Amino acid sequence: MTGWRERIARHDRVNLHISNGRLFLAIAGAVLLWMAFARVSISPAWPAIAWVAFGVLAVVHARHLQVYERARSAERVYLRGLDRLGGRWAGTGRDGGPFLDGHPYARDLDLFGPASLFELLNTTRTEIGEATLADWLRAPATLTEARARQAAIGELRPMLDFREDVAVLASESPVGRTGLLAAWAASPAVNFRPALRVALAAFALITVGLASAVFYGAFGSEWLIEWVIVEAGFAAIWRRSFHQALHAIDTPERDLALLAGLLARVESQRFLSPRLTTLQRALLTDGVAPSKRIARLRSLVSWLDSTHNLMFAAIAYALLLRPQLAMAIDRWHAAYGPAVAEWLRAVGELEALAALATLAYERPADPFPEFAEDGAVFEADALGHPLIAPASAVRNDVRLGGAGSRVVIVSGSNMSGKSTLLRSVGVNVVLALAGAPVTAGRLRLSALVLGATLHIEDSLQAGHSRFFAEILRIRTIVETARGPVPLLFLLDEILHGTNSHDRRIGAEGVVRALVKLDAIGLVTTHDLALTELPSRLGAAAVNMHFEDRLENGRMVFDYRMRPGVVEHSNALALMRAIGLDV
Q1: Apex 173 CA angle, 5 and 21, nearest 5
Q2: pLDDT per residue over 288-332, tens digit each?
Q3: Spatial CA neighbour of 340 closest among 129, 152, 179
Q4: 328 or 99, which is more confident?
Q5: What are 370's strand-pairing partners?
Q6: DSSP assignment, residue 403?
Q7: Where are the domains of the chain?
């Protein structure tokens, strides 16, 4: 970080000197030019030399500014990394809010939205990269897939230079709109006839010849004007086809530059893990690097954009440049459009892997989980929550399935840590089955799907009370448990919208049904009647609890999970602590 700041300071000084030099040469060139036209005794070569020097310095300045912007981009990347390490990351990045829509447990576990897991992890800068990372959090991978991602992330973790290059390339542009490019590439090409390309080139050559003849006085300008009108009429015949070839290529040049840069960096890197080498091989098209193909498309789009420039529009129109570019872009489309989806998929996966590798690098104590093939199991030592600062986190051991009980009934008073425990379990399952390291001393788990009731809301529009919304969610969870992959359920304050008698009977029925379907999970409650469930379910269930105590009129929580049932409630004490007369 210090090195980049020193480079920026050095570039600032050089930039000032170059700017001053350009200003001096511009003034000197203007003065010398005036002197030459004013017939002052001065050679015409001097203003020419001044303006050539100005042009050379302008090119040097442009290249210097590229290096300067890269240094600034690197500084931003490292500052964001420091924010993550310092717990100041919330609200600084894209939080993936749109990915919440309709997902069965993303809102329960804070996977997306403000201060979410996605915001912590997301270092991607393309739409396809964001979507890939979100997909990995939204849907658990198979154990084979998760192991392959672990190996790739493990290889990328120490590759600081590579991850820096990818992040810096990406940070030089707003989020790349790869979705537009993918949609255009998937659409059918027009496939113009080769004869039309020859005709357009011939028209342009004739235009250049006529313009030269008019310039030297061989013809009057009316000849050129009449010829341009003929050209326009010819182009109008094919106007609809030209428009069809161009209307969907709305990808800005900077997005193509970003994509070409990312592809080039991936192509030049040597990888060892099977997943990364497979990604590299997928990029080759006829033995030619896709970065060069994308760079060619970028050049065509850049020329297309330049035809909107008022200084160049007339020349472009006379030379039929837009129709010629339409045909060139369509040829590219026909040749490489089918490969674009695979290129984008590889870039998206690489960005997602790099994001998880950044997490692994910044949290070196977080291990990769072990995967079990022997039925539903979740065994964690020192389990924490990745969104809680390590300095303030309290970790707990959790055993579900395997040699332990299938269900843990967690009792405890309000604010004692029950819901946070459930979220810690759920979020670490998400991380583990995305292929990422986990916030634990050790974690062993099987393939699992999740079901949760931590965030239930009533719906005025649908006419659902909170209780009705909860039992609908529970029905979905039970149906999920009937699937081929074992379920891990997280039921927070189960059925607390009804009376104690109905809650006890309903909760027991739900838990029995889930156990019968070989599910594992946790149920939290502050209704002590539900802590009788283990006595009726036998070895399948066990009681655990969180405690609190009152010190000098303040509630104190240690957030440690202990065996057994909580012995008291703190509701009245909390109400009195905030001044309510109860």
Answers
A1: 55
A2: 789 989 888 888 888 887 776 666 677 777 777 788 888 888 888
A3: 179
A4: 99
A5: 444
A6: T
A7: 1-87, 178-192+238-362, 370-577
Which among 324, 259, 314 has a CA at the least distance from the CA of 289?
A: 259
What CATH code would you report for 370-577? 3.40.50.300
Give 13-24 pLDDT, tens digit per residue.
666 666 767 677
Tally the residues of the chain. 582
CA 182 to CA 301: how far, in whole Å?
16
Please determine, for residue 395, whether its predicted confidence score (pLDDT) is greater than 70: yes
Distance of CA 554 to the CA centre of its chain: 42
Q: Given its phi and psi angles, is residue 39 left (phi above 0), alpha (psi -120 to 50 degrees) or beta?
A: left
Q: What's the pTM? A: 0.81
Using an 8 Å Cβ cutoff, are 544 and 563 in contact? yes
Tokens read off for 205:
């050559």
DSSP string of 529-569, one letter each residue: GGGGHHHHHGGGEEEEEEEEEEETTEEEEEEEEEES-----
**CB-CB neighbours of 144 under 10 Å:** 9
Share of the chain above pLDDT 90, in %: 36
Token pair belonging to 137: 């959090």
Q: CA–CA separation, 475 vs 451, rounded Å?
A: 10
